[in-house]
Specification:
The protein is mainly β and about 120 residues long. About 0% of the residues lie in helices and about 50% in strands.
């Protein structure tokens, strides 16, 4: 199983980025997909998740209204559109796959992880 996250970069506050995560080696449409992030010196935290069929997104309060998670099961890819970025959004962003019957916000419940992509928001 491989999850390849990309699309990170350096952006000014108020800007936008779109992260993508391409999955292979698993039945993508059977997995709920999530995005987590980890800033230096901080624990990994939940950002957003989406159900296997794409009908149920869920967001951390800190990103609600600014970030949008979506997926394309035909392309085995999950996306995270990030708008109105803030310096506190700076972190390494990870995509993950969970074969749970509910959407989990807890990283131990995710089975597979991507390598992470750096997002840096300057003030």
């Amino acid at each position: 199983v491989q999850l390849q996250a990309y699309g990170g970069g350096l952006v000014q506050a108020g800007g936008s980025l779109r992260l993508s995560c391409a999955a292979s080696g698993l039945t993508f449409s059977s997995y709920n997909m999530g995005w987590f992030r980890q800033a230096p010196g901080k624990e990994r935290e939940f950002v957003a998740a989406i159900s296997w069929g794409g009908s149920t997104p869920y967001y951390a309060d800190s990103v609600k209204g600014r970030f949008t998670i979506s997926r394309d099961n035909a392309k085995n890819t999950v996306y995270l559109q990030m708008n109105s970025l803030k310096p506190e959004d700076t972190a390494v962003y990870y995509c993950a796959a969970a074969r749970t019957y509910y959407i989990s916000t807890r990283y131990p419940e995710y089975d597979y992880w991507g390598q992470g992509t750096q997002v840096t928001v300057s003030s």
